[in-house]
C-alpha cells in the first residue's frame, strides 16, 4: 500500500459490524459501505485485484477512512442507507428521498377530512401511501367518497362551534354528499365509524366494509325500504368491483412485502409488492444505477430498507428470491413452491417488464446509452476481451456443389453496416466442401484487410459448428491473427455457441439480447449468401444450348425464347417458323444445328 497513513488506519479498525466512509484528499466523501467485520471488509479493497475499473479508480482516490461502529449488521444496513441519502457519495448507488408521491391524508381534527396531498405534515394526522400512481390514489379516494358521505369543507367543527350554530349546511348536504355535521345532523361517533371503515379499505381490508354494507342492505330490505337497499347494493357492487381489480393472490397471505431484483452491467431494477388480505394493493419498481459493480444481494438489501421507509411499511414478513440480511425483526421467507413462489415470480416479471420498457425508452431518447449497454452485455455474455463494436459473420452457399459462393456481413455497434458486406466466388475449392470454402474466404477477407491496413473486427462469427470454426481458425493462424480476433461458431439446431479449443458449447438464454444479435447476424449472412447464389444460378441458367450455336448472339436468343418460350421448342421448330422470327440467314444456322 503506497499510503502509510491508510495502512495505520486499516490496522486499527475494529473487527465489529459498522459503516465505513472513504474520503479523498480534499476531504470529499467518495463512498459509504456497511460491513459485518469492518477491518476485513476495508482491507479487501486494498488487497484484491479489482476487475471493475471504477473500483480501481476509487481505491486510488482514497486518502482517509472514517468509520462508525454499530451493534448489529442490521443497524449497519440502516445507517448505510441514511448516510447515502444524506451525502449522495459519488461511488454509491443513488438513493433519493422522493417526497413528490401523493398520500391519502386523514386529518387529525373533529370530523376528519380525507383528501390527497403531496406534503406530509407531522401534526398527528394519518397518512397512507405514498402511491406511485396518482390515478390509483384518485381512484381509491373516489371509491371512498362514493361509499361514505364525508365533509369536504375546511370548517372547524368543534363542539363549541356547532352548538353556537356558527355554520350552515351547504350544497354538498343537499346533493347527499355530506350528512350535515355542521348543523348536528350527524354525530361525531357515527362519522368516526365511517372513517375507521375507510382506513380499512385504504389498507386493503375490504371484508369488514362488505359485511357492514350487506347487513345494512338486509335491514333496509326487511323494512321494505327497497330504494335505500338498492343504493347500498350499488355500493357493495362498487366495492367488490374495486377489489376484483386488485391482483388477488391468496386470501391467507396478508400484510406481507414482496421484493425481487434483476440487474445488468449498469443498473438494477427492484420491484416491490404490498399484499393485504390476499390482494396486491401496491406495486412499485425502481431503477438504481450501479457505481461499483455491486452484487444483487447488496442492492436488494439496500432497496428493501429504503422502500420500506419510503412506504412506511410495518409488515413483519417479506418474500424474496434469495437470502438477505435485513434484521431479526423481519421474517425473511424464500418461497419454494405454491402461491408464495408464484407471487415472487410475478414480482420478478414486473421488474423485467419495467427493465424492458426502460430499454425501449432509452433506445429512442438516448441511443448511445442503449448501444453501450448492448455492447457491454455482449462482451460479458460471450466472455470477450473487448466490446464487439465491429462483428463479421461468414456463411457458405451451394447446391450439390454447384456455383459455390460465400458471404460476409458486417455489424457495427449491433446494427447492420450494409456498405461493408462482401460476397465471394469460391476459387480454390472443387465440389461441395464447406470446410475448404470457409478456410478460403476467411483467408481472403483478412489478408485483404491486412494488406490495405483496414480496421479488423473484434469478433468473427462462423455460421456452423466445430468443423467450420476449425477451418476458419486455420486461416487466422496462417495470417497471424489467431489471438488478435475473437472467433465463435454458432450451430443452427440448438443455437450452440462454440469456442476454439473448447469441446463444451455455450448456451445463451433464448431471450437474451446477445443471442438475438448473433441470430440476426447469422440470418443476415445466410440471406445475403442465398441471394448471391440464386443470382449466380439464374445467370448460369441463361447459358443455354442456344449459345453454343455459331453466329447466334444474345439478342437473337432473347427473340427466340420470347416467341417459342423454351429452348426445346426452338429445337423442334421448322425452318419457316424460325425464319419469321429471326430472318433467313440466322434461321438456317439454328435449323441446321439441330437437324444436321
Overview of this structure, please?
The chain is flat. Strands 13, 14, 15, 16, 17, 18, 19 and 20 form an eight-stranded mixed beta sheet that branches. A six-stranded mixed beta sheet has the order 7-10-9-8-11-12. A three-stranded antiparallel beta sheet has the order 2-1-3. It has 20 helices and 20 strands. It has helices spanning 4-11, 38-47, 53-61, 73-87, 134-147, 159-163, 171-174, 188-202, 207-222, 226-245, 296-310, 338-365, 367-381, 434-452, 466-479, 513-542, 554-564, 567-572, 575-582, 584-595; strands spanning 18-23, 29-35, 64-69, 103-106, 114-117, 126-128, 247-248, 256-263, 267-276, 279-289, 317-319, 331-333, 390-399, 402-412, 415-416, 422-425, 459-463, 486-491, 496-499, 502-506. The chain has five domains: 4-87, GIY-YIG endonuclease (3-Layer(aba) Sandwich); 103-205, no CATH class; 256-363, Nucleotidyltransferase, domain 5, CATH 3.30.420; 379-539, UvrC, RNAse H endonuclease domain (Nucleotidyltransferase, domain 5); 545-595, DNA polymerase, domain 1. Helix content is 46%, strand content 19%. It is α+β, with helices and mostly antiparallel strands and 596 residues long.
